[in-house]
């Protein structure tokens, strides 16, 4: 099984992604939830994300906007400022007033095909770099593989250069192995 090769930090990312998905009211764990868990962590991936200014709070807001069923641009075209509506609702009813109710069942949420692919690619990145264990950095490289995923859109929406982040993460992993 692939998860036997995961370090404890990498396993923590997978369980953390479950918690993020649940907190955001998602029905499935996506690559964006893996990204949030990576940013929350303490490993090389968290350091690489922090180095480009991609902290968990910023990424969470970007992931929430990307998953928004309301189209802010379409609403703006008819004179509605969605951010102003959210701010007013939160001022009156509290933070997260317009967010879907969080899933609190505590049960296992299934992974999206994209998240599964990111985890599979983490193994491939470890093999490519001739490393026996899957670290948080390998998971980050797997998450960054798809330029159109919600995770990479959250990063690019936060001003992150994905190519530079991939290069930095690869360098960190190869330097650690040396």
Tell me about this structure.
The protein has helices at 8-23, 31-40, 44-51, 56-66, 72-77, 82-93, 113-128, 136-143, 150-157, 162-177. It is elongated. The model has no long low-confidence stretch (mean pLDDT 85). It has 178 residues and is mainly alpha-helical. The protein starts with 7 loop residues before the first helix and ends with a helix. The chain has one domain (2-68, 110-177): Orthogonal Bundle (Double Clp-N motif). α3 runs antiparallel to α10 (162-177) and α4 crosses α9. The longest helix has 16 residues, at 8-23. It is built from 10 helices and no strands.
Strand and helix map with partners:
Blueprint: H1 8-23, H2 31-40, H3 44-51, H4 56-66, H5 72-77, H6 82-93, H7 113-128, H8 136-143, H9 150-157, H10 162-177
Helix pairs in contact: 1-2, 2-4, 2-8, 2-9, 3-8, 3-10, 4-9, 7-8, 8-10
- CATH fold-type name: Double Clp-N motif
Beta percentage is under 5%
Rg, nearest Å:
17 Å
User: Which architecture name does CATH use?
Assistant: Orthogonal Bundle
Query: Strand count, sense and closure of the main sheet?
Result: none
User: Mean pLDDT across all residues, rounded?
Assistant: 85
Helical element count?
10
**What is the CATH first-level class name?**
Mainly Alpha
The counted number of beta strands is 0
Give the SSE order as H and E letters: HHHHHHHHHH
**What overall geometry do the principal axes of the alpha carbons give?**
elongated
How many domains make up the coordinates?
Answer: 1
CATH-assigned homologous superfamily = Clp, N-terminal domain
Helix content: 55-70%
Separation of termini? 26 Å
Low-confidence stretches: none
Oligomer: single chain
User: Structural class given helices, strands, pairing?
Assistant: mainly alpha
């Amino acid at each position: 099984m692939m998860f036997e090769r995961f370090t404890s930090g990498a396993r923590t990312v997978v369980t953390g992604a479950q918690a993020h998905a649940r907190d955001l009211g998602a029905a499935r764990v996506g690559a964006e939830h893996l990204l949030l868990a990576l940013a929350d962590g303490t490993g090389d991936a968290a350091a690489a994300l922090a180095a480009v200014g991609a902290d968990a709070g910023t990424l969470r807001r970007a992931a929430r906007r990307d998953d928004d069923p309301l189209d802010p641009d379409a609403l703006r075209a008819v004179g509605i400022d969605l951010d102003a509506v959210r701010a007013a609702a939160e001022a009156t009813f509290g933070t997260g007033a317009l967010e879907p109710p969080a899933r609190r069942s505590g049960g296992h949420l299934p992974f999206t095909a994209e998240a599964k692919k990111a985890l599979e690619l983490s193994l491939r990145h470890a093999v490519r770099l001739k490393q026996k264990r899957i670290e948080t950095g390998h998971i980050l490289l797997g998450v960054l593989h798809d330029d159109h995923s919600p995770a990479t859109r959250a990063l690019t929406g936060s001003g992150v250069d994905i190519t530079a982040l991939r290069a930095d993460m690869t360098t960190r992993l190869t330097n650690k192995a040396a």
